[in-house]
Design brief:
- The two termini are about 40 Å apart.
- The protein is an alpha+beta fold.
- The longest helix has 22 residues.
- About 35% of the residues lie in helices and about 25% in strands.
- The radius of gyration is 21 Å and the shape is globular.
- The protein has two domains: about 140 residues, 3-Layer(aba) Sandwich (Thermophilic metalloprotease-like); about 190 residues, no CATH class.
- Strands 5, 6, 10, 11, 12, 13, 17, 18 and 19 form a nine-stranded antiparallel beta sheet that branches. A four-stranded parallel beta sheet has the order 2-1-3-4.
- The protein binds zinc ion.
- The site of zinc ion has 7 residues, from strand 14.
Length: about 400
C-alpha cells in the first residue's frame, strides 16, 4: 500500500479515533504481520505529542498453538504478571488503538467448549479491570488487510490481488479516497450526531421492525435510554471515536422488552466459524429459539455461555445504502459487517447508553435491567424493505426507517 494512505490512515486513527491529547500515553495492539503500518501509527502518536507509545504484539498462529496444546486449566489461569498488567492499564488509562487484521478462520478447529470455559474463567478475574477502564479511556479499533482475511473476502483471487481489493474497499469505507479525509470524517460525524439527537428528542418507548423476510419484532427501549453515534465522550470529558468505520446510531433495549421474530440478513462470523440464515425468536426479552441453516451449534454454544447472552444489549440503526453495504462484500469482520446495515447484539449492553449512567451504582444498573454478559455479538437484520416505526410514551408514531434507510 502506498505511503500516503498509511500516513492518512494513521492520522485518522490518532486524531479522530483516540483524539490524542498532548502528554497522553498510547498502547497499540496489533499483529506482527503489520509492523510497517503500526510504525506509521507510532509516528502519528509522537507527532501529536504522545508522552509514550508502546505496542502489544500478537500472533494468531502462535496463539492457536497454545489453544491446541495447553490444558484447559493452564489456559484458564490468569498469571500474577498478567493480572498486574491489566491492573496497571486500568489505573493508568492509556489511549488504546486496536488494529485488526484477523484471519476470520484463525481459530477453526479449536474445541468450542474449552474455548468457552477458558474465556469464562479468565473473564471472572479480569472483569474488574475491564470495568475500571469502561468509559474512562479513549480507544479506537481500525482494520487493515492481511492475506488470509483478504482471501476469505475474495476466495477466487490470487493472494496479492485479494489484498489490494480489500485495501480498495477499506480506503473507500474509511473515506481515505476523499481530498481531506479528516474533514470528511468531521462532516460524517456531524451527520450521525444529527440523527442521534433527533432520536433522543423523540424519547421513544419502543421500535417495531417489519420486513417481508419474516421479521416482526417489537423492541422496548429503556425508559432513560440514550442514543449514541460515532463520537463518544468519556467520564473525563474527552471525545473519541471508538469504531472506524462507523455508520450506526445505537442504544440499549429493555432487557425483558423484546418480543417476536427477527431474521438475519448476513452471515455471522463467530470465533472463526460462520453462522448462516438464522432466525431468532424472543419472548419477554429472552431468545427462546434459534434456527440456523448453518452453524447452529456455534450460535447455541455462544448463547449458552451465560444467562445474559440470550438477551439483547444493543440495538443499532444503520441505513441499507451505507458505504459498506454498497461494496456488496461480506467482510467476515464485525467492525465492517455491523456497519453495513441495521443490527442487534446478543449480550453485554453499554453503560453510556443510559442517561446519567455516571451517577449510577452497580445496584442501580441491576435495578434498571442492565444486561451484563461475557459476550457482545452483533448480528445483521437490515434489509432493503425493512420498516421501523418508533412509538413514544404518548403513543405517537414516527417513521424511523422506510425501505431500509433513514426516514428522519
Ligand atoms: Zn453496533
Amino acid at each position: 500500500m502506498n505511503q500516503k494512505i498509511y500516513e492518512d490512515y494513521a492520522k485518522l486513527a490518532v486524531e479522530i479515533g483516540i483524539n490524542l491529547k498532548e502528554g497522553q500515553d498510547v498502547v497499540i495492539s496489533a499483529s506482527t504481520r503489520i509492523a510497517d503500518f503500526v510504525k506509521e501509527i507510532v509516528k502519528a502518536c509522537y507527532a501529536n505529542k504522545a508522552r509514550s507509545v508502546s505496542v502489544d504484539w500478537m500472533c494468531e498462529e502462535i496463539d492457536k498453538l497454545k489453544w491446541m496444546n495447553e490444558e484447559e486449566e493452564v489456559l484458564s489461569k490468569v498469571e500474577t504478571w498478567q493480572e498486574e498488567k491489566a491492573k496497571f492499564r486500568a489505573e493508568k488509562l492509556p489511549c488504546l488503538i486496536y488494529v485488526d487484521d484477523a484471519d476470520p478462520d484463525a481459530y477453526n478447529g479449536i474445541d468450542l467448549k474449552k474455548f468457552a470455559a477458558v474465556r469464562k474463567a479468565r473473564y471472572s478475574v479480569l472483569k474488574k479491570y475491564r470495568d475500571m477502564e469502561d468509559n474512562n479511556n479513549q480507544w479506537v479499533i481500525i482494520a487493515v488487510p492481511s492475506k488470509n482475511w483478504a482471501k476469505k473476502v475474495f476466495p477466487d483471487l490470487e493472494d496479492e490481488e485479494a489484498v489490494s481489493k480489500l485495501w480498495e474497499a477499506i480506503i473507500k469505507t474509511m473515506r481515505l479516497d476523499q481530498k481531506d479525509p479528516l474533514k470528511a470524517w468531521e462532516d460524517h460525524i456531524k451527520d450521525l450526531q444529527d440523527k442521534s439527537n433527533k432520536l433522543n428528542e423523540m424519547n421513544l418507548d419502543y421500535l417495531r421492525y417489519t420486513s417481508a423476510n419474516g421479521t416482526d419484532l417489537t423492541l422496548k427501549l429503556l425508559a432513560n435510554h440514550y442514543g449514541i453515534s460515532a463520537r463518544e465522550t468519556n467520564l473525563k470529558g474527552n471525545d473519541f471515536t471508538a469504531n472506524m468505520p462507523t455508520e450506526e446510531v445505537f442504544t440499549m433495549p429493555k432487557r425483558d422488552g423484546v418480543d417476536g421474530v427477527v431474521v438475519s440478513t448476513k452471515p455471522l462470523s463467530l470465533h472463526g466459524q460462520l453462522v448462516e440464515d438464522f432466525k431468532v425468536t424472543f419472548k419477554e426479552g429472552k431468545c427462546v429459539e434459534v434456527t440456523a441453516r448453518k452453524g447452529q451449534d456455534v450460535l447455541e454454544n455462544m448463547l449458552d455461555m451465560d444467562e445474559s447472552s440470550r438477551h439483547l444489549g444493543e440495538v443499532a440503526l444503520v441505513p441499507y445504502n451505507s458505504p459498506i453495504n454498497q461494496t456488496g462484500l461480506l467482510f467476515s469482520n464485525t467492525l465492517f459487517d455491523e456497519n453495513a446495515c441495521c443490527h442487534l447484539a446478543f449480550g453485554a449492553a453499554f453503560k453510556n447508553n443510559i442517561q446519567g449512567y455516571e451517577n449510577m451504582s452497580e445496584e442501580d444498573f441491576e435495578k434498571v435491567g442492565f444486561n451484563d454478559s461475557i459476550n457482545h455479538v452483533d448480528f445483521m437484520i437490515g434489509s432493503a424493505d425493512l420498516d421501523i416505526i418508533g412509538v413514544d410514551h404518548e403513543g405517537k408514531e414516527y417513521q424511523i426507517f422506510k425501505n431500509g434507510v433513514w426516514a428522519i
